[in-house]
TrEMBL record:
Residues 3-75, 76-312 form the BLOC-2 complex member HPS3 N-terminal domain. Residues 333-834 form the BLOC-2 complex member HPS3 C-terminal domain. This is HPS3 biogenesis of lysosomal organelles complex 2 subunit 1. InterPro entries: HPS3, HPS3_C, HPS3_N. Pfam families: HPS3_C (PF14763), HPS3_N (PF14761). One of its GO terms (cellular component) is cytoplasm. Residues 304-315 have a biased composition (Basic and acidic residues). It comes from the Eukaryota. Residues 294-316 are annotated as: Disordered.
Amino acid sequence: MVQLYNLHPFGSQRVVPCKQEPAHFCCGQDVLFVASAAACCRVEVFAVREQGRCEALGSFATLGAVLRMAYSSAGPSTHTLQLELDEFIVCQKPVELLGEESKLCEIPITLESTELPTEDTERFQVQYLLFRCFTPDQSPFGFCEETKLHSIQLLPVYQTGIWLCMYVLCTRKLLSLFCFFSLPDVGYLYSVGKLVELISTYQYSEKSEQAVLTPQFLHVITSQNLQCFTVRCSAAAARDEDPYIDTTVKACPPVTLDVCTLRMQLFIGPRAICHFKNHIILLTKADTEDITERRKPTRRMLSRKADSIKSRGNSESEPGWNLYIINTVSTIQLYREMVDYSRTYESVKTESCIHLLSEAHLLVRAAIMDPHFLGSDEKEDLLRAFRESCAFLGDCYSRFDTKDYHLALPYYRMSGLSMAEVLKRLVSEGDEIQTCERGFIFYLTHSLNEDSSEELDKESGNKVLKIFYLADPVQLPHILCSPCMRNVCPFTAVNYLQKVEKMMPSAVLTLTKAFLALKMGDLLMYEREMDSCKETTLTCGFVGQPRLLWQRQTGIVTPTEFAVHLKETQPALLVAAAVALHENGKMELEEADTFFKMLCSSSGNTTPQLLVDFWEALLVVSSQEEILQELLLRVTSQYVWRISEKQLPDTKPLKTTEDLINSCSHFGLIFPWVTSIMSVGCSSHQDFCEDISRLQSLLCSQSINVAAAQPVLEPLAGAGSVGLSIRVLCSSRRGRYEEALEQLLQRCPEAAVSYAQQELKGDTQALWWTKMLPELCNRTRLSGNNCPVLISSLKETLSVVAMELELRDFLSLLPEDGTAAFFLPHLLHCSQRKLLT
């Protein structure tokens, strides 16, 4: 389907003052070369000035008739041969081969040198892009006109703007390449970038003579018209530049838009056309019947003989040809006309309005992609027009009931308009809001649900409330939690929520009402709302809308007034909600750190107890090993810091060590030998017994990676009985039982037997008699009767050894200088056990 609009892409036109009849022409470097018809063998040269004015520079003769001309900056060259009949390939059916497959056409291509001094043939490569063959009617009269290929062109599109190379603006980077070719009735536009694909098909209203492609338009000449079609090059190139352009942030009209005819300009006998900068150069040659038609006298000419003779004389002197330079209007001027024209469709809310605005947008986008854009006088105007076109498209997708309503969001974002400005565009002052289309609701929902620094004023906020109450009331609680709605009237908001609650009650709605009650200072209402739901239900409500507790402002997590109040009144609920948020992917560990530190006004590296409570609570529920090890290291570090620095928590912990042991497998029961060590130690850490017991409990479990925690535990190395218990626990967890025994025998022998009973089992049980028994014997002998603890430990060890070892093995362990009377009861016991077995 071709959309036809009567716009005006063509501006002024000027006649090139050729002395001879033109046959061929080409442009380059602001110079027009015109080759005369066959008999003249001459080329005229003209300088092309502003607005298409031409100034003759001179002419030169050629040895023969010019058959073809082309201009290349690097040297309607070209190597043309008359094709013989055997060079045609006749297929039985149409063939189209794209990309690499086009090599299958088996047509060899060789590069020929022009032998110019600037030529670097080693850099030239041949790449097959497209092979297409049309099957003509098989008839004795040759090929039919419908299959005649008359125009073919490659169009490069470069990366937006110009790249910076050191100190100068230079090097253009090729972004996309397009291939266009045309038959008399139809034209085909292909994208030949990473993929080769057909992006547009142009059905002409009548047989075409020639066509020329530009980044913005396709110009086609027929027997009577110069036609201007829109092209999709900028849409395809935009997607090559940014494959993720079609998102909630950015958008671009699709490549598959209906082809649009902007203008059908009447000319008599168009024969050839070429494009040069912002000019169309058109050669017209009138047939005999066309000239005769112009010479027919009118009634006015018959009424006056003198006028009739004068007119006839003028027409006889008129040439049958002309070479025109047609100045295309500026992008901005045509863009304005397209926007104005689109308003004729606005009242009926048709797709034609969107289509025409999309064409205007692509027109501007193509101009911005021009390599000379950065140096253009229209740069600022084009950027302004780009943002304006985005705003217009956003308006259409917001107001119209269209399947692509979601595009309102990215177009408004690209326009740079604030939410308040969009509201003013779509909701007039004083108008009663009745209904809003899906596009507008979609835009508002996404904009309000994001972390924006924009704050709507009270009037705009209340307007938004009414819009959602009418269009999507279930979204009202979520909308009210947006930072943008901070200035909304809480009384009005509660009134709307109460109406919604009767139809669709929810935990989020209840919490939102409580939040608003705090803003109004109504504590009775707040308590009533909070008491109406169980704590688990409220926790689910916070997961449903995290911004009740925290919001982002310029990328920083900030606690809300609700969170501050919960910290003072219901810290357990606050921590439970934060844990639920983390487990549901709504809050990262680092975000929780920032949240609790800001909430508790912690300065520097100080960790508030509420954050430690959060870590401990998270240990209870988390199942991710990586998160668990991170949490274990964090709580361990915090316990060590408090014990070593003798710092008490800033608030009372929510759980005791016993609570944690009972609810969390990562906190183990404290071993009796650890308790034994602590019972005989000094009382310098008596005020920090909770942190000490939590740390010991962690090390008594099998969860924490002791090797990773060792550097964190280092500050407690010399901390009396606390340090001893930690060192022995670490040695045991790492399998260094002999080292652990050595430490206990030196520092706390009364705990050695208890340690052995706990730790020396299975493969490590031999340490009882190979390590502990000799050490106790030796230490007891050296201390004499001055250490009853050693004697007691030795007796308990002997009792165990006597039960476990054979008599011969037991005897071999006894010291040679031992007193027989001391060991006799154990020897007797050992021998009796042997007899019993």
